[in-house]
Amino acid sequence: MKRLLSQLKTRALAPFQRPPNWHTDWRAILQRDQPAWADARAAARGPRVLIATSMGGFYAGATAESMLAVALTLRGARVEILLCDEFLPACQQAQIGHFADISDYGRSGPTGELCAACYRPARAMYEGLGLKVHRYSDSVTRAERDDAERIAAKIPHAEIATFRFRDMAVGEHALAGALRFFAKGVLDETSVAEAVLRRYLAAAILTACAADRLFTEGGFEAACFNHGIYVPQGLIGEAARARGVRVVNWNPAYRRQCFIFSHGTTYHHTLMDEPTSVWSEMPWTEKMEARLTDYLQSRWHGTQDWIWFHEKPQFEIAEIARKIGVDFSKPCIGLLTNVVWDAQLHYPANAFPNMLEWIMETIRYFARRPELQLVIRVHPAEIRGTVRSRQLVAEEIARAFPELPPNVFVIAPDSDVSTYAAMLQCDSVIIYGTKTGVELTSMGVPVVVAGEAWIRNKGVTLDARSAAHYFELLDRLPLGKRMDDDAVRRARKYAFHFFFRRMIPLPMMQTAEGKSPFRVAIQSIGELRPGANKGLDVICDGIISGSPFVYPAEEDAVKTAEVAP
């Protein structure tokens, strides 16, 4: 038995036990550029920027952010790094699959081999660049550690989600972190789940203390880090905003070699609130139309993206109808889900408290509308995403409805049915937070938005303001027609903005295999200097000066058209 447990532990820790060469080998890149790099560091007199990587074992983050650290330094910024030095009692880097016994994480957290393999190689990488590295433990006092432990242990369980510390939403991010760890939308009512949640709360408080001290004493003008939610990133953002430090969050985009950057907070929020004038007044050309059409078609197969979910999707309508049992000759309404646990933050625009309640209430509504068919497409990322969901929508539906209404059909996440092909057969589609709404409206499909989808507030969708308003919108279905030409053009303008202007190309970030989906493919740091790449210039200018993270893709389309025969 002891031998078996040892084997299980070894397998659980395996994702963390990687050699330093999983990180970018900047020493090799700098071999021929050492004098130029030394001069660049010595000459840096610009804004002080904190690259808050924090989790060194998050290879995608460390890869992209080490590249940004070099590029920003070459533009005169004074760049410093923040890493967790085996300090936090919980973080986003830990996943439930890393532990043979989940209760171990509740008791001890990500200690030992996990933390060492996360911190030490990243520290060596950044120190190899000659950049200052801040450690979490150096920025938290003994008294603050005691307070974090006491608060996390004593606060009533029911108050954790809304708990604020130094006016920072530590509870919200702690809950989001725990949900991500368990890959569920709701925590189980068990002592283990509560222990893990309290561990994330302690980590959130400690992060808030460390970041607050750094931003109070460090003189930073900007902080750049991945995602902007969960623990620790969410609290770094909270502390920075509280101290007047500009926040820049980023995430890999859908398109291969592209990234989304946002000012102020996570892109989950900013893409909903972005002024429509940023894109609605943009000239529209045949070249832009053709480029968008080509990309939207590629989305059906994922040929231009970092990630896709089906190798051989099923497009044949008769076969799709047979597989799911629907009759596409009768009025159909589509419904697209999200992954239950993903980005569980508060959105004031949501018409329902959570996605599952929205789904169940929608099924109950359609049970009273037998003249309509509801086709529910469960998101494939539930089982094919980076973190496999442990709370499946189809199982939740089956639990609530042991016998589905005869006019409701569920497409499982592992089905090869093409989401696009199925939804194009529908009169209209209802969404909560999926990005597919951007594509569907571009194809003229009417979309009802019940949650935080990015297509909300763009003047092309039916946006529910409340649960009552949502059902009023459903009462209007079926609409019996596609969107009009003006609405489709507006939707396509936004789609172009979303896919080509907000998704900024960085060709030096090439697809890789392993723990990071991409690698830095350069021969010298000269490839990262100002003027070498337009996308990198847009990103660095935004971090340094606060300019918009909008890539001028429409200019590329015009230039392409000018040189075309």
Question: Can you walk through the features of this model?
Answer:
The protein folds into two domains: 296 residues, no CATH class; 225 residues, Rossmann fold. β7, α15 and β8 form a beta-alpha-beta unit. With 565 residues, the protein is an alpha/beta fold. The chain is built from 23 helices and 15 strands.
Residues in β-strands, percent: 5-15%
Count of the separate structural domains: 2
Helix segment count?
A: 23
Main sheet summary: 7 strands, mixed
Reconstruct the topology from this structure.
Elements lengths: L1 H12 L12 H5 L3 H10 L4 E7 L4 H15 L4 E6 L18 H7 L4 H16 L3 E4 L6 H13 L15 H13 L8 H27 L4 E5 L6 H10 L3 E7 L5 E6 L3 H7 L3 H4 L5 H14 L17 H8 L7 E5 L18 H13 L5 E5 L3 H4 L8 H8 L7 E4 L7 H5 L4 E4 L4 H7 L4 E3 L12 E2 L3 H9 L9 H17 L1 E3 L3 E3 L6 E3 L13 H12 L7 H11 L2
Parallel strand pairs: 1-2, 1-4, 2-3, 4-5, 7-8, 7-10, 8-9, 10-11, 11-12
Antiparallel strand pairs: 5-6, 6-13, 14-15
Structural key phrases:
single chain; 565 residues; alpha/beta; Rossmann fold; seven-stranded mixed β-sheet; six-stranded parallel β-sheet; 23 helices; disordered N terminus; disordered C terminus
Compose a concise summary of this entry.
This protein is an alpha/beta fold and 565 residues long. Helix content is 44%, strand content 12%.
